[in-house]
Amino acid sequence: MKIVVTIKQVPDTTEVKLDPRTGTLIREGVPSIINPEDKNALEEALKLKDTLGAHVVVITMGPPQADDALREALAMGADEAILLSDRAFAGADTWATATTLGMAIKKIGEYDLILAGRQAIDGDTAQVGPQLAEYLGIPQITYVTELTLTDGSVRAKRKLEDGYEIIEAPLPALLTITKEANKPRYPTAPGIITAYRARQVTLWTSKDLGAEPGTLGLEGSPTQVRRSFSPPAKEPGETITAPPEEAARQILSRLKARNIIQG
Amino acid sequence: MDFTFPKEYELLRRMIREFAQNEVAPIAEEIDVEEKVPMDVIRKAGKLGLMGVPFPQEYGGAGAGEIGYCILMEELNKVCASTATVIGAHTGIGAMAIYLDGTPEQKEKYLTPLARGEKIAAFALTEPNAGSDAAAIQTRAVRDGDNFILNGTKIWITNGDIADIITVFAVTDPALGARGGVTAFIVEKTFPGFRVGTKETKMGIRGSSTAEIIFEDCVVPKENVLGQFGAGFLTALKTLDVGRISLGAGCLGGAQAALEAAIDFAKNRYQFGQPIAQKQAIQWMIADMATEIEALRSLVYRTAWMMDSGHMDRDFSTYAAMCKVFGSEVLDRCVDKCVQIHGGMGYMKKYPVERMYRDARITRIFEGTNEIQRLVIATNLFRKVGVRIR
Questions:
Q1: Is B198 on the interface with A (CB under 8 A)?
Q2: Residue A29: inside a domain
Q3: Is A220 part of the contact surface with chain B (CB cutoff 8 Å)?
Q4: How many CB atoms lie within 10 A of CB B100?
Q5: Which residue from A minimizes the CA distance to B68?
Q6: What's the CATH architecture for B122-232?
Q7: What is the reported pTM?
Q8: Contacts of A193 in chain B (CB under 8 A)
Q9: Would you tell me which CATH number, out of the four given (3.40.50.2020, 3.40.1030.10, 1.20.140.10, 1.10.357.10), belongs to the domain B233-384?
Q10: Is B118 a catalytic residue?
């Protein structure tokens, strides 16, 4: 069985600070990590490898330093790593990204399952997984928290806002995995050393993918960004300073006035 | 010249930091209060290859060398000195002696399960009458056919009561003394005549076990002689030399944690209408801590680099002793300032700095007191100019 896991290297947003004067992100010195839910997807693949046996291929599109994300995936237990890196890929929106990944996966050849994280913490679109499934013309199940493989098909529990669904799909299929699915394993210490000193990351450029000009990167992106802006800062909340009973009374009357509670 | 860590070390540090934060930090207080060796953590660490970080992968290690091992000790000591001490006694001296002087067969049989964390190691040199004067050990080993028979008592042995495999130093020829008359042995806890004596209760590093171990006609096969017969004292000194680097690294972690706690507290504690970080008295303490910590960091990783790149000459022994002296004293000054900055809160059990202060004190004493380290440093320096220190 071959499982492809798509991952993205993202800035560790828990370490990102805002420049108080300009309101922009301070990217300097912020470590890059594997997008957390992509790690959940990789963990699902590695669990299947542990129980059923599988060849796990991890693939990413990104700048040359995305190599580090792939090495970490190798240290966690992935068997093969492919880096899609080329200036021609730069500026890709989700569709151009899905197209690039899709072309690479076609080049890989036969596969049984594609696992992706639900969404990346830097873009929050949750689009690349579904678009990749569309590009490849295979079934997709999104927001998966549990999955089991049976002969030639996958059965998955997908999380909804007010419940869950259980869906079955024939293989090959693409699933996007949420953080509730598992707790990703740590890379092992010998795995880390070997990942950097003895293992290979395969590099594919646009030439390797045989891409037509204009299909990838900024040129291949239907999304047009007209302008970007910071949302206006929220008004500061109101503080009621009164003895507890009086404060409770005031809060209650305001909630009633706005019809938030009745009575 | 390049002072950056290669990428594998950056990832190793991040992994260990996450492991320490998620698996160790939440139970660090419990480990201290209940004097509980965190066996669950040790098992998890073993599965991740953290019980054999410096050793080659062919013997079950991580292949990360002394630099990788120093990263482990630094990061673990930031959150729990007890856990770091258990792993340190296991890897840094117990298993290290077998790595440095073991035969390929001994490494295969003993180092491999130790490096994988399947077995626990200890290092047994200290005796009631042989502390700093380690050459005065009295535990005897007498040849009996294909075996040696050991008799004697070792005290204050870290992991003494949880170890499966113990590196033991015993006198094989009293007439020759330390140079030629001491031999190292690999002893399994299941060997007849081995038993654990009393367990100590301590001021700090309370979650590491410290026990007496007793040999009563303990039968050790002759193939368990570690290193050359009669050269055990050299094995001990060489192992302790190496152990001093990672001990310095552990102190670095403890000192860094003290600095971070002090900065955090100074930022949030208001007195006289402003955070105490605005007070020069606090700023100077913080500046001194940070400066000493950076000097220690350079010394520790430079010495670890010396070992990994094969520069293990007499200067190495000097630098290793400096790691121990400077590391433990920087730690001492940092935890002291950290408590002072915290004021009364630093004295209360509710805050981890109280534990950090207690845990720090042993580092100036164990694995060769700082007074002995200064003797080592001075002896090496004077020897270079032809003066022999007696």
A1: no
A2: yes
A3: no
A4: 16
A5: A189
A6: Beta Barrel (2.40)
A7: 0.92
A8: 8, 12, 57, 62-64, 68
A9: 1.20.140.10
A10: no
Residues within 8 A of A (CB atoms), B 45-104 only: 47-50, 53, 57, 61-64, 68
Q: What is the ipTM of this complex?
A: 0.95
CB contact under 8 A, A186 and B49: no
Q: What are the two backbone dihedrals, phi and then psi, of residue A58, each rounded to the nearest 5 degrees?
A: -110, 135
pLDDT of residue A23: 65
* Statement: B7-120 belongs to CATH 3.60.15.10: no
Nearest residue, CB atoms, B8 vs list A31, A186, A192 = A192
The per-residue pLDDT for range A105-127, each reduced to its tens digit, is 999 999 999 999 999 988 889 99
Which residue of B lies nearest to A191 if distances are taken between CA atoms?
B62
Burial of residue B357 (CB within 10 Å: 0-12, 13-18, 19+) is buried
Q: If you search the block for the tokens 């008799």, which residue do you land on?
A: B151
Q: Hey, what are A55's tokens?
A: 């060849």
Domain assignment present for residue A46? The answer is yes
Asked whether the predicted pLDDT for residue A263 surpasses 80, the reply is no
- Measured between alpha carbons, how far apart are the two ends of chain A, in Å? 62
Q: Assess if residue A179 is contained within a domain.
A: yes
pLDDT tens, A118-151? 999 888 899 999 999 999 999 999 999 999 998 8
Q: Under an 8 A CB cutoff, do A192 and B6 touch?
A: no
Mention every residue, 6+ apart, whose C-beta is less than 8 A from residue A153.
Answer: A168, A169, A170, A171
